[in-house]
Design a protein that fits this description.
9-stranded antiparallel sheet, 32% strand
Length: 240
């Protein structure tokens, strides 16, 4: 089975900024999201009480979905996460539109909180339903003697690759690719799927050293989809 990027559906999209040392104001952050971005995140908010020492700073204090559960924002002292989530086959999204939207949210958040942004991340997962996704992975990436012996009849499979490099001569990044088996769909009707997850993020070692500007954050998300598509197409190239 020869697969190319157009055969896959977008499963999830994520954008994250990491904010070390942020003095988190629960009330101000909640008001900002609801007033400035309430047309997107228009579902029922979930919030924790005022944070205590026992709650890790990575744990969201505020979670607000969209009414249709396609979008979600999570705010924690250490990070701000924005998601698009596919819940059914018919759901659709433009990855470019998503990554064009999020810098505006991050800019407003930084203006409100004065946050240092020490890291930036983008995560994109694509999927295709298959009766035997493990077989697709082993056939594509494994030697014949292995796929016909130790990997034969595998129920689950994961190929995991991590690289470090400088993106566009500007950002030091980790780039992760995971090709794995999984399930997709409503809990009562899960279907087997091949999932390809890409995660590109700036380095944790630089978290407390850097403070990305609004312009640098915007540039990162402007270039990230072309970078992800280029990497994806190396794993699933078009046939000439």
């Amino acid at each position: 089975m020869s697969l190319v990027i157009g055969d896959f559906d977008v499963a999830t999209i994520q954008a994250t900024i990491f904010t070390p040392g942020l003095s988190f104001s629960h009330a101000r952050v909640l008001a900002f999201i609801l007033s400035d971005w309430g047309d997107v995140f228009n579902g029922e908010p979930v919030s924790l009480p005022s944070p205590g020492e026992e709650i890790p700073i990575q744990i969201p204090r505020i979670i607000i979905p969209s009414a249709d559960n396609k979008y979600k924002i999570e705010a924690a002292p250490a990070r701000l996460n924005i998601f698009w989530l596919r819940s059914k086959k018919e759901d659709d999204v433009s990855v470019n539109e998503f990554y064009n939207m999020v810098p505006g949210i991050f800019k407003g958040y930084r203006s409100l909180t004065g946050a240092q942004v020490g890291r930036i991340a983008a995560v994109l997962a694509r999927l295709i339903n298959s009766d035997n996704p493990a077989n697709i992975i082993s056939n594509k990436f494994c030697r014949t003697e292995l796929k016909e012996s130790i990997f034969k009849k595998a129920e689950s499979f994961e190929l995991h690759c991590h690289k470090k490099y400088k993106l566009c001569n500007k950002y030091n990044v980790n780039s992760w690719v995971r090709c794995k088996t999984g399930l997709f769909g409503p809990r009562e009707n899960n279907q087997k799927a091949l999932i390809v997850e890409q995660d590109i993020n700036t380095l944790n070692e630089e978290l407390n050293k850097l403070n990305f500007t609004d312009s640098e954050i915007t540039t990162f998300y402007n270039i990230i989809i072309d970078e992800m598509n280029s990497i994806f197409s190396k794993y699933f190239p078009s046939e000439n």
